[in-house]
């Protein structure tokens, strides 16, 4: 069970503190967590609010990689407690759970302290972050939470019951707690309380066997859109060779269907799907038996399923040998520049980004025209010994944050004709004996974000999508999207 929940800002400040049991968890556990999180080069302990905005946005960046998702810390009273944490939009979501008492594990919410599955807590923390994005917008960062304190606390009140996850479906939550609007905020300011954001009616989903869907849903235009999104997690060397790679996928849906439709989704090659997880609306036994997805969808946007791509034979080889659709070549050096006399010790950095039409991606038959890579950004974290950097680019714009020592290069759309270049110089910190030229191995890896429409790694496509139990014929749209996950480029 979850004893307490904390939401920490990018500087370690406790924004939200909520206790679900009779025992109050000391804030010293947050200090212990933050002292561990502040260690290491890639942490955001000193990052300002501006750098959080430029480096994160809709793309999560591993700003701390020295913190395990589960850690044991002193509880301030002579014992210990377990902390589960995730990082979303610059905020650290930390759940404090007591250790198991009595030697046996139990998942029953009654009784004393019982062991709780770690993945359940981590997934629930991600669910809280997703709910904040739904209510407060993307990104749900520090400013968004501070502007909606009352709503955030009310959401936690409904989502957790005595330390156990309770209501997590967006449709049920929006029935219980109104999303913040200008009118709601005016009512809240006039009444001086949070009653204006609460609904007096019982959610319709709570009295049915489908809590994810409202009753009596009607739409003037019945339509459903499905995106098959596949993310490539990869680490590339400085010369473009693939060090490691993995592919995971998800099916994102936007349902605007009236009534209670029953949908059946079939794939052209379900054997490509491996290690999958589903939304509660999916009939799992049907998928296990026939490899089809049968479900009654929620109303609005939702994630239907997640899976890992089962790459075999030539597909895995093509991805591993370096056939990535984008290539980033970094060159970083430190030393004395400006000649033998009067030269300053500093650093230089240059990046070149190119699109590659010959890659391991499989393109949809409806795709026309040359390769276009969208939403291309390069995040450049600088080592601690760099005082400042002067950067110039030929395409797009680059933003450098002095406090966080992080730069973000927004390129936008990239095709084979464009050859974006970044060049810059760095000024290093001085020690007691003058500025020293550090080893280039201390340069952290770059993080590249990109997206290609109508493309996939596995070639998984929808074979059919049928709607039963309703008489209308909805509009159905399906597309594939290939994008970067944690796509890192080593500089040495």
Kindly name the structural category. alpha+beta
Largest sheet: 9 strands, mixed
| Span between termini | 44 Å
The stretches of 5 or more residues where confidence is low (pLDDT under 50) are 40-64, 102-111
Number of helices: 9
**Global geometry:** globular
Number of strands: 27
The portion of residues forming beta strands comes to 35-45%
Mean of pLDDT: 82
For the biggest β-sheet, the strand order reads: 11-13-9-8-27-24-17-20-19
Gyration radius over CA: 25 Å
Tell me the helix content.
Answer: 10-25%
Characterization of this structure:
The protein is of the alpha+beta class. It is 17% helix and 39% strand. A 9-stranded mixed sheet has the order 11-13-9-8-27-24-17-20-19. Strands 2-1-5-4-3 form a 5-stranded antiparallel sheet. The longest helix is centred in the first third of the chain and has 19 residues. The radius of gyration is 25 Å and the shape is globular. About 7% of the residues have low confidence.
Topology:
Blueprint: E1 4-8, E2 14-19, H1 28-37, H2 49-55, E3 70-74, E4 80-88, E5 91-97, H3 118-136, H4 142-147, H5 149-159, E6 160-161, E7 164-165, H6 170-176, H7 182-191, E8 223-236, E9 242-256, E10 262-267, E11 273-278, H8 284-290, E12 293-295, E13 300-309, H9 314-320, E14 326-337, E15 344-355, E16 362-363, E17 372-381, E18 386-393, E19 397-401, E20 406-415, E21 421-428, E22 430-431, E23 434-435, E24 446-453, E25 455-456, E26 462-468, E27 475-489
């Amino acid at each position: 069970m979850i004893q307490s929940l904390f939401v920490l800002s990018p500087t370690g400040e406790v924004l939200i503190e909520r206790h679900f049991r009779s025992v109050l968890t000391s804030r010293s556990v947050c200090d212990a967590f933050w002292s561990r999180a502040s260690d290491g080069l890639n942490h955001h302990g000193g990052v300002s609010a501006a750098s959080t905005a430029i480096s994160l946005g809709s793309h999560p960046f591993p700003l701390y990689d020295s913190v395990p998702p589960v850690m044991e810390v002193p509880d301030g009273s002579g014992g210990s407690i377990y902390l589960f944490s995730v990082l979303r939009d610059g905020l650290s979501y930390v759940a404090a759970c007591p250790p198991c008492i009595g030697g046996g594990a139990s998942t029953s919410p009654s009784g004393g302290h019982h062991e709780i599955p770690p993945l359940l807590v981590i997934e629930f923390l991600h669910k809280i972050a997703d709910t904040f994005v739904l209510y407060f917008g993307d990104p749900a960062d520090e400013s968004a939470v501070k502007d909606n304190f009352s709503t955030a606390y009310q959401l936690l009140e409904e989502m957790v019951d005595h330390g156990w996850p309770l209501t997590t479906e967006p449709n049920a939550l929006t029935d219980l707690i109104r999303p913040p609007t200008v009118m709601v905020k005016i009512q809240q300011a006039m009444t001086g309380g949070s009653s204006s954001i609460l609904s007096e009616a019982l959610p319709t989903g709570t009295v049915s066997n489908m809590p994810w869907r409202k009753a009596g849903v009607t739409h003037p235009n019945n339509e459903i859109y499905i995106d098959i999104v596949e993310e490539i997690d990869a680490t590339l060397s400085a010369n473009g060779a693939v060090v490691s790679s993995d592919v995971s996928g998800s099916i994102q849906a936007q349902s605007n269907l009236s009534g209670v439709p029953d949908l059946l989704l079939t794939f052209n090659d379900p054997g490509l799907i491996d290690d999958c997880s589903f939304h509660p609306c999916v009939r799992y036994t049907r998928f296990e038996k026939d490899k089809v997805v049968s479900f009654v969808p929620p109303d609005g946007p939702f994630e239907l399923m997640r899976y890992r791509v089962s790459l075999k034979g030539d597909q895995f080889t093509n991805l591993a040998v370096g056939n990535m659709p984008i290539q980033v070549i970094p060159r970083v050096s430190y030393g004395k520049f400006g000649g033998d006399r009067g030269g300053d010790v500093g650093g230089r950095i240059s990046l070149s980004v190119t699109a590659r039409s010959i890659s391991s991606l499989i393109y949809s038959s409806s795709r026309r025209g040359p390769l276009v890579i969208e939403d291309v950004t390069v995040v450049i974290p600088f080592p601690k010994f760099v005082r400042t950097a002067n950067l110039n680019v030929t395409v797009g714009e680059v933003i450098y944050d002095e406090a966080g020592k992080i730069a973000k290069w927004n390129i936008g759309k990239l095709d084979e004709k464009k050859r974006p270049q970044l060049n810059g110089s760095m000024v290093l910190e001085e020690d007691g004996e003058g500025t020293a030229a550090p080893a280039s191995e201390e340069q952290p890896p770059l993080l590249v974000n990109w997206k290609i429409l109508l493309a996939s790694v596995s070639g998984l496509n929808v074979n059919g999508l049928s709607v039963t139990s309703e008489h209308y014929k909805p509009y159905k749209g399906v597309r594939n999207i290939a994008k970067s996950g944690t796509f890192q480029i080593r500089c040495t």
